[in-house]
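Submission checklist for the structure archive. All mandatory fields must be present; incomplete records are returned to the submitter.

[x] Identifier: DUF255 domain-containing protein
[x] Organism: Hymenobacter frigidus
[x] Residue count: 740
[x] Sequence attached
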Amino acid sequence: MKNSWIINFLLLLLGLTGPVAAQILTPTHLSTALSRPTAKVGDEVELIINARIDDKWHLYASDFSDEVGPVVFTLKFTPNPAYALVGKLQAIKSHHEQDEVFKGEVAFWEKTGQMRQRIKVLQPGPLTISAAADYQSCTTVDGKCVPGSETLKFGALAVTGAAAPAKATSTAPPATAETKVADVSAPVVAPATAAQPAAITTDSAARLAVASAPTTPAAAAPTEAEAAPAPAVAGVAMNADPVNKAGGLWAFALLAFTFGLAALVTPCVFPMVPMTVSLFTSGNDSRQRGIFKALVYGASIIAIYVLMGVLVSVLLGEDGPNLIATHWLPNLIFFAVFVVFGLSFLGLFEITLPHQIVNTVDTQADKGGWAGIFFMALTLVVVSFSCTAPIVGSILSLAARGERIQPIVGMLGFSLAFALPFTLFAIFPSWLKSLPRSGGWLNTVKVVLGFVELMLALKFLSTADLAYHWHLLNRDVYIVLWVVLSALLGFYLLGKFRLSHDSPLDHLSVGRLLMAVLAFAFAVYLVPGLFGAPLPLLAGYLPPQSKRDFSLATTAIGGSSPVATAASTSAVPREIPRFGEFLELPHNLDGYFDLEQAKRVARLEHKPIFIDFTGHACVNCRKMEATVWNDPLVLDKLRNNYVVVALYVDDKTELPQKEWYTSTHDNQVKTTLGKQNADLQITRYGFNAQPYYVLLDPDDATNQPLITPIAYEPDAAQFSAFLQAGLQQFNNQRTPVAAR
């Protein structure tokens, strides 16, 4: 078919077919880091190699004999008189087991692995170290093994003048040759994080110093003692669960179910209901057997769509949802897919499967029997593809940004709604008489869905725009586009213009008029958002309220801006927020985006700290800001009683190399603002979902929360009580016992 290439391309984008065309396998991905960015001549530094290994693959380590069989991980360093190797390459926490195939002990990693090589610095100056790595990755799925060879670079390491003579060590000659572990009994070198100078506190190791303070390399995450949760304060119900996953899944299942109902009233599906049902109500089968066949038919439809959800969930992998939620590439792909689907529904082109696929499936359905019923269901899915593909693709795109179970839940909800009428009408065929006749109204539904697809597409573009600070789609431009699309939909429903595949509109039905009213009402609701209105019903889908092109707000009472009013409550002038040139707080709150800076300010002002673990792609974060933070009681406490710090866990801003560190949580080098904030939340507080709110005493060296942190709390009164309880605990800690 002339348009078959379109759907093949879109299926590739959505990942429904998987990477079947890939010929070059790269199951192991290596990255490098230094245990510290600076050193003196004579100091020892560790070179760190982190390995990320694909699911169902393993990477052979360096701490087993190369005579066993598999390729042992080796490094061959480029000769350089500026340093010398100290000891051997060390494999950190590799798995050892007896391999029945190779008849010997092997060592390997799954998911992640790490190697470390200690060196001694011999000369001053910037030092970049190169080494050729050879290794082997294998999978137990089909026994396939893939050799790996690549050049790794470490540094540049900033080396300064001579240091005091170091203690005697077993120092090898300057690096000139291959290094690997042949003696499996050799002790594993302790990670360099244990050898950091005592001046580096646990807090600075967990979070890097800001530009206005002396920077100290961070290489260790907070200790377990720091990560222990604080007790809840009596009288306040604290929610320790970061997200209500069950509620979120139910809401998404309901949304998918609604999408399934919408798919039923498209031109490709609705006319097929009576045609399909007639197959189960005619013939010599008894009523009971006909009902059973109808149930099998409906179950087959559900199984086909749920299988799609399972495939998407498997293909995403463990880190898939987080990557898709914030990375620019998948968000731009989804944006393009939604736009293409929307234009298809508007009639620009038609998405169809090749005739060969349709004919093959239809032939199998004609064979009859229980297998024939399954292929009848598959025929329905294939034939209705041009109308259901945009809806199914939309659900899978949205689901891919959440938990791994969401694609399955989404397809289950969609298929239940999609299969329900076919099954019910087969059981109660007399109901068919109540169905409206096919006609132009079906195309109207399709056009409405096209406008909705175009509006939803903006969310994906906005997510990438916020995370990477492209400044392409701010809140006002976003709202303007929605206003225009909503108004166009309203005029279309009133018959003010027709699209190419529309039939003439002789009269305006009541249903069409009511839909036009809803479209115009939505457009009018959006207009105040151009001038600063929070639009709480859409808070999770719109960009945050920061800089706007239009604003009716001028100054606060007394002629001062809200920011100035907030800042004036401080006894001393506040520091300029680091990262404030591209990050902002809602409601003109005066705050920070770096925890160390917030602590300094809080100590000067004798206030507790309000930590907001948030994200550009966090829907519930925007809802909290628009509907809870906007409450007068909450906003007053945030503005006057706390120093607010927003820590974005998905921001892509790369930090200076001197601030990079290797996390003790996953042994990965954290180079961006978002990755370091996410690592802080996980290592110190044991949660990785947003929003997440923590209250701290800036003078508490243990970094214990004042009270138990909470997550999403849509009740403004409860959230205000949470802030009040933290403030009370802060005051109690600072009040001498004799004065209480």
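[x] Structure attached
Curator remark: The radius of gyration is 31 Å. The chain has three domains: 28-194, 246-440, 557-739.
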